[in-house]
Amino acid sequence: MGIFLAKTFFYAATPPLKFSRVLRRIRFIGFQSILVIFLTGTFSGMVLGLQGFYTLNRFGSSALLGPMVALALIKELGPVFSGLMVTARAGSAVTAEIGIMRISEQIDALELMGLNPFRYLVVPNLVAAIIALPLLTAIFDVVGILGGYLVGAKLLGVSGGTYFAEMANYVDTKDILEGIYKSLSFGALIIWVCCYKGYYTGFGAEGVSRATTQAVVLTSVLILVWDYFMTSLLF
Amino acid sequence: MMIRVEDLHKSFNGLEVLRGVSLQVEKSEILALIGMSGYGKSVLLKHVAGLMKPDQGRVFVDGQDMCSLSGKNLEALRSRFGFLFQGGALFDSLTVFENVAFPLREKARLRDREIRERVLSELKQVGLAGAEHKYPAELSGGMIKRAALARALVRDPEIMFFDEPTTGLDPLIAHTILALIDSCHKRLGFTGIIVTHQIPRVFSIVQRVAMLHGGTILAEGSPEKILSSTEPIVRQFISGNIEGTIWKPGLKNEEI
Nearest 5°: phi and psi at B11? Predict the structure, then answer.
């Protein structure tokens, strides 16, 4: 898997880059994931608002609901949940697509045309995921914060002005950068594992099915493990 | 000599499929590779095309060792190949037109108008005029094979590999495909290897025949020589007689 990652980065760093394929993959990985990110982001923010309000209220600190929701989303939940959602929606599809191309000899056909399958199949997905993940995470964060506002301010009575003003006091650029670094690395991680599993899939429909399951499970676990190390490094 | 295979060995999970295969194909010659299913014909073809690496032995294509080539050199040599896969291997997200145009768009520096003309001409040659906007999922088996043949031939390859081009097709379509291969060979003069069970029909379009059996080349020569062979296994295989030494029900491949 290490060699696969090294080859992917090598071909990504050396021209030519297939721009049209990158754009198509941004559409697939990024644009078509917006709805699921919007829904999960909204409800994550609403749950955080609800739980956060009752917990902070015990200590008489419900005014800090805004920063609590924002920091939890920007630093952790945004990148992690976006990564998991993209893994489930797009990563699984990438594994299945490349796996089917492998078993139906389409990858062999590419090679025999004198074309490099990494440049056609892996690199466009990598570039697209690295571009799309931070943007999807940003959407997740924004709608999550608005979800928290909806519950905290509109349902539970926290002042809307306090919610956003305290948020501006406690959230700084370093927190936002932490979320961006995480989402960038999750983008690379998803494509690395999902493309690898598809590229070296087993035989037949069963092989592709097993590869897809393994890709989703392994990527999800690695996102959480890598998130821990990133957090401990960036704190 | 365009293709030379020397003492090729290949095993999968301890089962030795190729046990020292040696073979030669002259320039502009088509060689038919025959033998029973599951005996390594496609494996041998993929070694010659550089899709598989042998455990032992060498493959030379136009004097270049396929086993030691990599990167740009391998891509350059493969640019001279055409390969018709058993299942067609058409890109299922592309239409027939886009599939055939794909190698031209990626490797040939042609204008869109020239690409369009060449693709439409190639599709007409294989009898697929009017089907250019269809996706592979909308095509019959014969149409897939013909579209794949058009894609393989669109860049005028010097070396062609055909992996069971007629398998699963009705006799009329199978005959059409073989006639197409023959006419393209006459037009382009490529060197080719054709893995097939279309015996003896294929003998009319090839210059030489080699039979792979037990992991080695059992018999090799002109179609006439193979047809008149006294080797019992060759005779039984060509006649299709189930009584003989070549195969018995229940016998595993590795036991032969």
Answer: -120, 150
Which residues partner with B95 through β-bridges?
A: none
Residue-wise pLDDT for B87-100, tens only, equals 889 998 899 999 99
How far is residue B185's CA from residue B191's CA, in Å, rounded to a whole number?
8
What single DSSP character describes residue A33? G
The answer to whether A65 touches A151, Cβ cutoff 8 Å, is no
* pLDDT at residue number A234: 75
Helix axes A123-149, A2-13, angle to 10 degrees: 90
Helices (H) and strands (E) in chain B, counts: 8, 10
- Chain A: give the shortest CA distance to residue B220, in Å: 27
Q: Which residues of A touch B157 (CB under 8 A)?
A: none
ipTM value for the complex:
0.81
Residue entry with tokens 């989703």: A216
Q: Give CA–CA dist B125/A102, Å, rounded.
A: 29
Instruction: Work out how many CB contacts closer than 8 A connect A with B.
Output: 47
Q: Are B88 and B135 in contact (CB under 8 A)?
A: no
Tokens of A69: 């929701």
